């Protein structure tokens, strides 16, 4: 009954498991409430991605109810979970996968501090080393876009293509993050809220000291190439 | 010993279980401390609702100590839990059920950010898409009313009748939310605190960008009719 | 080997168990970090109270390492836990028990928002109904006092004697709360942080609406006499 | 196969276990997100210390994957964990151990409020007794320094040598704390975030009342010499 051959089926199973499990990182860090937020992951070697069903409780997410979609955002029929509707942000995820070949994961939340910057349409200035490490500079704002067609996807791709940042704050909406895989995009979602909160609080009490551009460049380069247990290429 | 016939008794048992369990959502999201806050649910097909006992620890709530009341707010004698006093907000819940036929659940908390807006008597402006989705516009303020008679209930009903919002901030007091059932009212209680916090934090740091009314209308309509796994009618 | 007769020994055992267990409420609500904070409880029918040892991890607290003291604050020798030093705030607790006969429990924390009001030496204005219910008005500030002699105890007793509030914010230090027993004092510690946080956040964003004194009186009276499962007398 | 003799090997095993376990205090208090932050501990009686591997999940930390380093910051080959890279802050930890003989533990985090003060390059004024107890005065700011050479270590040592405070806020970066052992440095990391948060919130709402220097001196002296279950010498 496999449509895709054994190798791709193995990859699909692994991405289903990863995407289901990674949603628990969003609740662990308080980035989502109720049924909000979503994680997706591209299936390596196929024009497919796996995404959360719409409006389902986080406690009920499991590999077999994640939903397999084509890069057009259409659910693949007769696959596990296909009887349900995918996340209402599926079109935006699909647009990113179609237009950014190196992106293997996408995450969307309404996390408090990142959404607060988005409600003012204000980018987050890079004033702490953790932000230089992870995002390589300011975190940009994307256009206001209504859900339901390609306009959110176009906004994300327009801002993040060629940008160091893996996060964009969609105006009046909230953060979208990308990564080389779903885990990497979740890390970016965790970090964007962390730096959004720290910089908000810092600025409440006075003037921020800017980071010199040369220091930002050095920190970003080191983190992308030296940090962790194996060299990680920047995804863009 | 059943007073209501087997069908209604089954419905009562289900609402008791739902209401007892849903209180854990209030503690999970930090919406209540100590014994504060309360959830109630209407029994479908009967002039009855189920509510939390007064001043009992959240850890001790169970289906059999939830309290069954008539729509006049009087405890039904000789039913499980009837030896205890019901929530001190019972009169307000009863007033809502008597006057809003489509409401199946009511929740009250003193959650931090929603209560902060209430202490200023200020409605929450609709500046983020999550708020347009869930509440369809600003979250309104209700009058200051003393507990113990119908004045809180009258305030809630007066504000929410014909309003898109399922939440009202009772002045100097805190949020009350309604829903098609207890689960839906709990979701509104979780969401009102989430948006109260995000908009508070956003506004601390500068000007908010308004959402165009047409966008609010589109988002609210889509969310009420398309989001989730089956169409959900707006309750009002 | 019982010094106090079987009835008092039973009371001591119960207070040891209560005081040990109640410390977990302080960590559950995030009112303490590391080894900070302390709960004590009077032994009914005896000139004794039970208090936490000094500088011991919360995870290691148990009935048998709670420390039994006389009302002079001196550890009762040859009792379980007596080989350890009692909380460094023991003198303050003892002073309260000696001078306020109706007090059966005392709690001290450095909880964030209550301590923030204390660092400004500012009382918390009564602008929300939860505060009128629980404290009957503003939460007062006590004098700055150095730890180690009776000056903290004198400050607490001087402020709280004849006051509706069961909480006092000791200037530059943090909240002390009292109650009819340890559980009641812990509830006051939880509530003082909750209202300190809500009123702080409310005031950050604009003018607060005062509560009329008559409404405060009505709310306090009802809460002390009607709320919960049995009438509770005010402790003072 | 023991290189160091049985006594030192026992000490290494104990420090590995302590350092691995103490990382859970950082997550418990929300001082770190993702793989950020690090704890190290000196091996008593040897020119060695144990530190966290780089970029590894907190859930995967265990005694056997902690990394043993010489005081030059170089990993000791053929020891458990040596196949991995140590924390990218290893050079800074090593510099502290080489230059501050009494320091037995070092911790680094990007905890929110402490990092917010660091982003403004502002020291935390000593206005609450908990801060006088634990740090003996203001918490100082260290210079901006780029990761990867000795400049962070030099900055920490330059500020903390001869200083009462066990915490320094490295500008635009975050807090580093020291202690007589890893546990003590972790306590300082927990406390610096706690006081950074409390003093930030206090100052948002008005003027802070200064603590008299004589009171600070008395509190610090008592806490270092009387608090807890056995006299603790100040580490510096």
From TrEMBL, chains A, B, C, D:
InterPro entries to which the protein is assigned, alphabetical: Aldolase_class_II_sugar_metab, Aldolase_II/adducin_N, Aldolase_II/adducin_N_sf
Record's GO cellular component terms: cytosol
Protein keywords: Metal-binding, Zinc
Cofactor: Zn(2+)
EC number, UniProt record: 5.1.3.4
Segments forming domain Class II aldolase/adducin N-terminal: 17-200
GO terms of biological process kind: pentose catabolic process
GO-annotated molecular function: aldehyde-lyase activity; L-ribulose-phosphate 4-epimerase activity; metal ion binding
SUPFAM superfamilies cross-referenced by the UniProt entry: AraD/HMP-PK domain-like
Recorded catalytic activity of this chain's protein: L-ribulose 5-phosphate = D-xylulose 5-phosphate
Similarity remark: Belongs to the aldolase class II family. AraD/FucA subfamily.
Protein name from the UniProt record: L-ribulose-5-phosphate 4-epimerase
UniProt source species: Cryobacterium psychrotolerans
């Amino acid at each position: 009954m496999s449509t895709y051959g054994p190798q791709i089926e193995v990859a699909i199973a692994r991405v289903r498991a990863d995407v289901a499990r990674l949603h628990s990182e969003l609740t662990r860090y308080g980035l989502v409430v109720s049924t909000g937020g979503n994680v997706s992951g591209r299936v390596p070697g196929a024009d497919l991605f796996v995404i959360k069903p719409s409006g389902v409780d986080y406690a009920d997410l499991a590999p077999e109810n994640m939903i397999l979609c084509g890069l057009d955002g259409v659910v693949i029929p007769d696959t596990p979970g296909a009887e349900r509707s995918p996340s209402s942000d599926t079109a935006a995820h699909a647009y990113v996968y179609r237009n950014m070949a190196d992106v293997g994961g996408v995450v969307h939340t309404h996390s408090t501090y990142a959404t607060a910057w988005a409600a003012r349409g204000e980018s987050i200035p890079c004033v702490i080393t953790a932000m230089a490490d992870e995002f390589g500079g300011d975190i940009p704002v994307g256009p206001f876009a209504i859900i339901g067609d390609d306009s959110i996807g176009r906004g994300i791709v327009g801002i993040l293509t060629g940008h160091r940042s893996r996060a964009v704050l969609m105006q009046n909406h909230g953060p979208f993050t990308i990564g080389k895989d779903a885990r990497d995009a979740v890390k970016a979602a965790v970090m964007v809220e962390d730096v959004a909160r720290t910089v908000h609080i810092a600025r409440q009490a006075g003037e921020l000291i800017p980071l010199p551009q040369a220091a930002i460049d050095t920190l970003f380069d080191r983190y992308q190439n030296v940090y962790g247990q194996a060299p990680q290429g920047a995804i863009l």
